[in-house]
Amino acid sequence: MNDLPLGGKIAVITGAGRGIGKAIALRFAKEGADVALCARSRKELSEVNSIVGRLGRTCLTLSVDLADPTQVRSFCDQIIDKFGAVDLIVNNAGVYLERGTFENSDPELWWKTMEVNIRGPYLITYHLLAVMRRGGKIINLSSGKGYSAGANSNAYHVSKAALNMMTEGLANELWLRDIDVNTLVPGPTATATFDNLPPGQERPPEEILAQDRSSLPKGLPAWERVKHPDEVADFAFYLATRPVGGPTGQIYSLARRPL
């Protein structure tokens, strides 16, 4: 064990190949944690693995489709086999597959959103809960869309609302084990999902943030701002380092407006 804030901790982060998940994985590794990471892209995971290795941390990576329960179970089994215990779970991975109206939605895509955004976090947490140590933290990445009905993107709204309720229910159950469960709402963040460009045209956060505000997605209040993923990672680190008896069942929003 080292004397870094997360020294000796094992952190599991989903959707860690890019964006917010990658930023959290690297921040946790810099702070001393060994990490288990999953994402769909092997190439992206390999790049993150290399960086974590240069930091001197152990890194387990596996390409996983969270919509596939068998793949999720295999990932969790490998975590248990390699590390034996878990201290931090960050359920970050999510998809935004339907952006139109409910009436014109694709039933397969609507349901796959549920499979990835809520069943995925459920299964990750379910399979690893037995090996979570006292003082553990579960951080569920949600969205302001989970707190308002909206007029489009029904599947995404519903999936995040379900995730929010899972956070609250778990917090009520796990405080007896000194495990805290909280929701983190990043707000607008410079990620591929926010940028919404076709596959293969993704841009790095710095390029997104460098563009003129007028070219950003419409609907943001004048006082809102788009953040770098590292800013979200900073707050995830804050939640990961709260002492036993700290906040649980709470919603932390980095957005600059009411949810």
List keywords for this structure.
Rossmann fold, alpha/beta, 259 residues, 41% helix, single chain
Radius of gyration: 17 Å
Distinct helical segment count: 8
Oligomer: single chain
Following the backbone from N to C, one meets helices and strands in this order, namely EHEHEHEHEHEHHHE
Number of beta-strand segments? 7
Rounded mean pLDDT is 93
**Major sheet: order of its strands?**
3-2-1-4-5-6-7
Could you give me the name of the CATH homologous superfamily?
NAD(P)-binding Rossmann-like Domain
Q: What is the total number of structural domains? A: 1
Our estimate of the beta-strand percent is: 15-25%
Q: Biggest β-sheet, characterized? A: 7 strands, parallel
**Within the CATH hierarchy, at the fold level, what is the topology?**
Rossmann fold
Uncertain runs are none
Distance between the termini: 40 Å
What proportion of the residues is helical, as a percent range?
A: 40-55%
Shape from CA axes?
A: globular
Structural class: alpha/beta
Judging by the overall fold, what is the CATH architecture? 3-Layer(aba) Sandwich
